[in-house]
Design goal:
Radius of gyration: 32 Å
Largest sheet: none
Low-confidence stretches: 12-98, 429-436
Helix content: 55-70%
Mean pLDDT: 78
Order of helices and strands: HHHHHHHHHHHH
Distance between the termini: 10 Å
Length: 436
């Protein structure tokens, strides 16, 4: 593998082709295979066989290394050992460390950026997403704010010029005819669908750019908005395709699940058809959820590994295999946190918009929507912009860090990331480099 940020999928050759045992010393003790001097039988060192190391190698960590003056006869296997201290195996007197007397546990993992380069816990993934936003706030919040503003401007314009008050009012009119109700529901669904589509497009752009920022933050490197755009732009169309493919797949599964009930209801069995449609929708929803989590790491695989849509879905399925519940739990927790943060910001702005609109706060509480004028749309839009600016980095960051965590667990990506970050002791081709 190379020394650049190693996001490529596994399969490339190890660095410099070094064998795992290449760094082990091969020199032997001079004269080891020669004739044995009878006088040597009286020395303690003559009791060591070929397969055993010299006596000095069995010292505790921190004592004399290979090549230094060997211990005296009293420290060999046959010599008299000093009494152990009250600490048992680790509690001998000073200078006699015993078995593991100086062992202090494994060294801490390297942390060149926002996460330590080792398998992560749930809290570390969430903290890494927040740390990325805090450490690289200019780029992260700049991208999120720009995307949120553009998206909200389009949404406000659509709401102002496409939302038909007369048709939606029929939904609250008890004397409305069936045709009026159907027309109102159709208009509402159409308007909501267009608004959701615009919001989804903005989310995709923010996710693509923030994926690049988060991946660099893991290495401790800053990236400008221009650099993030240059890196993400070639893959954005594929990211759009991936997102819409997964959306269509979920809708198709739900449609297939509800189709039998709809057909039975159309044939005259309204109650049985409705019950079957509900059961089918629930079963299809479970299948769709399982697939969405299975492919939830496809977007970072597509953006960072520069994969195609199909290959990125395969990579996600491989990384999630055996860890579905863990990935689902972390994604669900991140979604709950993001929604709570957004609600804390959006709801007060919605009440303020309702209070400033023509109907006042009473009309807003009665109908759930205010007078859809410029005041209501602008004030509520400001709340949406602030909420999106804070939630985009959380959801995108958690997904990227979860992808990195799964690759660390399955593919030892931490070694490649440490090399790419220039961590001391991980240089490519260095003797004894882990994983070389």
């Amino acid at each position: 593998m190379n020394d650049t940020p190693g996001w490529a999928s596994p399969g490339s050759a190890p660095s410099d082709g070094q064998e795992p045992d290449a760094s082990r010393p091969t020199d032997t003790t001079p004269g080891q295979d020669g004739p044995v001097d009878p006088a040597d039988d009286k020395r303690p060192s003559s009791k060591w066989s070929k397969e055993q190391p010299p006596p000095g190698q069995w010292s505790a960590p921190g004592q004399q290394a290979r090549g230094q003056t060997p211990p005296t006869a009293g420290t060999g296997w046959g010599g008299q050992q000093p009494p152990r201290g009250p600490g048992g195996y680790g509690g001998g007197p000073a200078g006699h460390g015993g078995w593991g007397g100086n062992w202090g546990g494994p060294p801490p993992a390297a942390k060149p950026g926002v996460i330590p380069l080792r398998p992560l816990g749930v809290g570390e993934i969430l903290d890494g997403a927040v740390s990325t936003m805090r450490t690289h706030w200019r780029t992260v919040l700049g991208i999120s704010l720009a995307v949120a503003v553009v998206t909200e401007i389009v949404v406000v314009l659509l709401q102002k010029f496409t939302l038909d008050d007369s048709s939606t009012a029929a939904l609250e009119d008890p004397s409305a005819t069936v045709d009026e109700l159907m027309r109102a529901m159709s208009d509402t669904l159409l308007n909501s669908g267009v608004i959701l589509l615009i919001s989804l497009l903005g989310t995709i752009v923010a996710t693509g750019l923030l994926t690049t920022v988060t991946s660099r933050a893991v290495l401790g490197r800053s990236v400008t908005t221009r650099e993030a755009w240059s890196d993400a732009r070639p893959q954005l169309l594929k990211l759009f395709g991936l997102t819409f493919l997964l959306l269509l797949l979920a809708l198709a599964i739900v449609g297939v699940g509800t189709l039998p009930g709809i057909l039975i209801a159309a044939a005259g069995g309204a109650e049985a058809g409705a019950a079957l449609a509900v059961l089918g929708a629930l079963a299809a929803g479970v299948v769709a959820l399982w697939l969405m989590i299975r492919f939830s790491l496809a977007s970072p695989a597509l953006m960072l590994e520069k994969q195609s849509i199909v290959k990125s879905m395969g990579r996600s399925a491989k990384l999630v295999r055996g860890a579905w519940w863990r990935v689902f739990g972390i994604q669900l927790l991140a979604a709950i946190i993001a929604n709570i943060v957004a609600s804390i910001i959006v709801i007060p702005f919605a009440f303020l918009a309702g209070a400033l609109s023509g109907g006042g706060i009473t009309g807003f509480l009665d109908s759930g929507v205010g007078d859809v004028g410029w005041t209501f749309l602008i004030v509520s839009g400001i709340g949406s912009v602030i909420g999106s600016t804070l939630t985009f980095p959380i959801t995108a960051g958690v997904t990227v860090l979860l992808y990195i965590d799964q690759r660390i667990r399955r593919e030892a990506l931490d070694l490649e990331l440490a090399r790419a970050a220039g961590v001391q002791g991980y240089a490519s081709g260095a003797p004894g480099t882990p994983g070389s």
